[in-house]
Amino acid sequence: MDAPRKDIHNSDIPALCRACEARHRGVCGALSADQLVSLNKQSTRKRIDSGVELIGETQQTDSYANIISGVVKLTKMMADGRQQIVGLQFAPDFLGRPFRSDSGITADAATEVNICSFPRTTIERMIRDTPMLEHKLLEQTLKELDEARDWMLTLGRKTASEKVASFLYLIATHVNPEMDEGSVSFELPLTRSDIADFLGLTIETVSRQMTKLRKDGVILIRNNRKVEVPDLTRLAERASH
Amino acid sequence: MDAPRKDIHNSDIPALCRACEARHRGVCGALSADQLVSLNKQSTRKRIDSGVELIGETQQTDSYANIISGVVKLTKMMADGRQQIVGLQFAPDFLGRPFRSDSGITADAATEVNICSFPRTTIERMIRDTPMLEHKLLEQTLKELDEARDWMLTLGRKTASEKVASFLYLIATHVNPEMDEGSVSFELPLTRSDIADFLGLTIETVSRQMTKLRKDGVILIRNNRKVEVPDLTRLAERASH
DNA sequence: AGCGCGGTTTGATCAAAGTCAAGGCGGGAA
DNA sequence: TTCCCGCCTTGACTTTGATCAAACCGCGCT
Q1: How long is the CA B209 to C1' C9 vector, in angstroms?
Q2: I want to staple B71 with a disulfide (CB 3.0 to 4.6 A). Which of A52, A77, B110, B164 is the partner?
Q3: Are residues B30 and B81 in the same domain?
Q4: B145: which chain A residues are within 8 Å (Cβ-Cβ)?
Q5: Quick one: A48 and A84 in the same domain?
């Protein structure tokens, strides 16, 4: 609803950047050395400010990208302004939708985001040449489908406090993968308003449930963004996992 | 929660069935004649009664299938019994999850269902041999992901009456594809209880909203299952599409 | 016909989350 | 420092949908 924002900072890093290469390996794997070099030649590293739109009304999907750092939110909006975040993407997720451009989703940087992007044509040619790449893509898509369906259960059947606990648990475990108990501390990548749009709640309800979790000793709120979870298991219980 | 049900009727149709072949073309496409014959040789047609579990606790995912007719519901359940339908699959969708078995979803026949199933090994070998098959799979997965995300908006941000209207609109347009206005009549593939689990509501609320839509002249209810929509556009408005 | 049963509708009441309205807190600019 | 602005929290009240309870309806059975 704001004025179109397009201030993507292209930091003009030389085309062949080693950091990107590492990410390409991580996400795409199975590319030949030749392909990797050619991908790097055509890739550009970009830093995107929090809040800037990556894909949507103002920004065409003429490129694909790997997320190097930061969090991207995928949002669906209704005509009257109600909106729902339908997915969060973290590094090293692949960004941009193959073989389909619209689907009514916009992608915005939730935090400051670094991506490594390359032109649509490059990646699509590589997909044709390398079945393994398509296989990787299928795997990421299946992962996203699983996540979407998990979240449908949260949206449809959990109470407000379970929802907020579920969100915190999601972030906590994403910050420290392969951790499912003990103590974690992390920075929330979303504002209260984003959290509300992710959970299908209002900001007031999110706030109230956060203070309730704090008063019950399940979490500590250092400042609005920084949260500490002394016992992940207890949080998981609150989320009804 | 009921006793395990396993009464799948294998109707012992000879392995090579023409009806199935048609479906294989529809879903998988791009198979060579040889592959198609071999697929048909190993495929079995099955009729499954409404309510029977296809994939889940009691039934292993040792096979894949094409849906020939009927509706399959994908359900996620919480420990305390709350459940959410996370997807509906119609003919000619592909059923069964490649490269992953669990993910906590069960698939049940919502109506009487006819499927054409073949062993896991067969389809996985073919996928390795035929990149185009994997491409088709990716396309169906992307379609399911889109649907899931559409539904997340419905679950998170719509009111009860918008939800019910959205559901009816979904079924109406699925029964008659490429129709988006005028009059339609159809049979609901789900009970009120299933509809409630799909919409994240209770059966009472679903019922009340249905009668409201009826009283407002948006729908006619012939009997519990049969519904007529005189004007699809009006239904779409009620759904806030 | 009368009975019973599952699924559905309807009504009365209640609780959870939304809305409206203040106020607080923190960080940046003057 | 002080002010300001955005974001967050808190409180009072309202609304939506859940819960509890009863009746209804179509249908197969005896």
Answers
A1: 11
A2: B110
A3: yes
A4: 141, 144-145, 148
A5: yes
> Do B140 and B168 have their domain in common?
no
Q: Does B84 contact A135 at a Cβ distance shorter than 8 Å?
A: no
Please name the amino acid found at residue A203.
I
CA-only gyration radius of chain B, Å: 19
Q: Is residue A3 a part of any domain in this protein?
A: no
* CATH number reported for the structural domain that contains residue A234 in this entry: 1.10.10.10
- Considering only CA atoms, which residue is closest to the C1' of nucleotide D17? B205
Q: Which residues of B touch A73 (CB under 8 A)?
A: none
Asked if strand C contacts B187 at the CB level, meaning under 7 A, the answer is: no
Q: Dihedral, CA atoms, B168, A104, A122, A29, nearest 10 degrees?
A: -70
Token pair in block for residue B80: 């305390």
Determine the structural domain holding residue B58 and report its residue range.
9-147
CB B33 within 8 A of CB B7: no
Residues B75 and B105: beta-carbon distance below 8 Å: yes
Write down the pTM of the prediction.
0.90
Q: Which pLDDT tens digits describe chain B residue by residue (241 residues)?
A: 333 333 333 333 333 344 555 555 445 555 667 777 777 778 888 999 999 988 876 666 677 888 999 999 999 999 999 999 999 999 988 887 764 556 789 999 999 999 988 888 888 888 888 888 888 888 899 999 999 999 999 999 999 999 999 999 999 999 887 778 889 999 999 999 999 999 999 999 999 999 999 999 999 999 999 999 999 999 999 999 9
Domain count for chain B: 2
Please tell me the least confidently modeled range out of A93-102, A178-187, B88-97, B105-114.
A93-102
Both B48 and B140 in one domain: the answer is: yes
pLDDT band at A224 (very low <50, low <70, confident <90, very high): very high
Of the three residues B97, B116, B147, the one that is the final residue of a domain is B147
Q: Which nucleotides of C are covered by protein (CB under 7 A)?
A: 7-12, 16-21, 26-27
